[in-house]
Amino acid sequence: MMKAVLVGCGAMSKAWLDAARQVDGLAIAGLVDLDAERAQARAREYGLSGAVIGTSLDAVLEQTKPDAVFDVVVPAARREVAFSAFAHHCHLLTEKPLADSPENARAIIEAARRAGRVHAVVQNRRYIGNVRRIRRFLDSGAIGAPTSIHADFFVGPHFGGFREEMAHVLLLDMAIHTFDAARYMVGGEPASVYCQEWEPANSWYRQGSSASAVFDLGGGKVFTYAGSWCAAGFRTSWEGSWRIVAERGSLIWDGHDGLKAEVVLPEREGLLDKAGPIDVPPLDPADRIDGHLGIIKDFMHAIETGTEPETRGADNIKSLAMVFGAIESAETGCRVAIAQETQ
């Protein structure tokens, strides 16, 4: 039986606990929150009568001696939680983003390396079926190597609260899902970015609700992102709307169930190459999906087998670097080089 302590009992903790109770061999040994009543309420809601409740992570870890910490705190507290987890010899699974700054991200990854602990991030868009199918299809070479990746994200949620007051709200709070999916689907290594943010007249956010970015993903691959969190009408999926152009064809995905591809045929109609449909194979039994549940299972498997989880922090930092690179570009008006973080 693997024991875990969950720290941060806000709204997002429900997704974690919903998933955790479906995993055989996993026990939630403790719940930690600055608000003890909130932690107690979560314990009652999920029938965790035996869980230790506390406001101090160190104290609860000392009492429960768990194998892992589940970090669902605000990003500004992530470094402190990570250092505490590793000091108590715990593995760490953290909500996205990995950290609130590049410096803190690197510090957490180095601390995990020194402690010899598994560290992973809940980058759950990778665990969507069509994302897996696209990666497998592109890897097959059926339409050649991808060259141009385009993602549109247009949704208009009225969150209220902190999001409507924060800076760089789209890039910092949401765009990493799209950036990570792009990097994963085409095997990209981000090298540079140019980004512009703006605040449309119809926006109800303070700053950064709309952005457009162009990334160099290396190997001749360019990724364009266009997004808005104040776009009314014709909204995209929360996963965005995608077009991937490759050497011998293209693939489009509406972010829902609409996924199709065409391959160039050996003939032309006037100026244009003819193209015909090509099947995108279904999910393979080996494909890991199911969002938080899939990631928790992957994390536990890595601990049990001594392997690395797919969303390990040392890889996820590359997607986080895309976010901070885009923010720096938007602030300076310049193209920004993205550091090549090592895995």
UniProtKB/TrEMBL annotation:
<dbReference type="InterPro" id="IPR051317">
    <property type="entry name" value="Gfo/Idh/MocA_oxidoreduct"/>
</dbReference>
<dbReference type="Pfam" id="PF01408">
    <property type="entry name" value="GFO_IDH_MocA"/>
</dbReference>
<dbReference type="GO" id="GO:0000166">
    <property type="term" value="F:nucleotide binding"/>
</dbReference>
<feature type="domain" description="Gfo/Idh/MocA-like oxidoreductase N-terminal">
    <location>
        <begin position="3"/>
        <end position="121"/>
    </location>
</feature>
<dbReference type="InterPro" id="IPR055170">
    <property type="entry name" value="GFO_IDH_MocA-like_dom"/>
</dbReference>
<protein>
    <submittedName>
        <fullName>Gfo/Idh/MocA family oxidoreductase</fullName>
    </submittedName>
</protein>
<feature type="domain" description="GFO/IDH/MocA-like oxidoreductase">
    <location>
        <begin position="131"/>
        <end position="251"/>
    </location>
</feature>
<dbReference type="InterPro" id="IPR000683">
    <property type="entry name" value="Gfo/Idh/MocA-like_OxRdtase_N"/>
</dbReference>
<dbReference type="Pfam" id="PF22725">
    <property type="entry name" value="GFO_IDH_MocA_C3"/>
</dbReference>
<dbReference type="InterPro" id="IPR036291">
    <property type="entry name" value="NAD(P)-bd_dom_sf"/>
</dbReference>
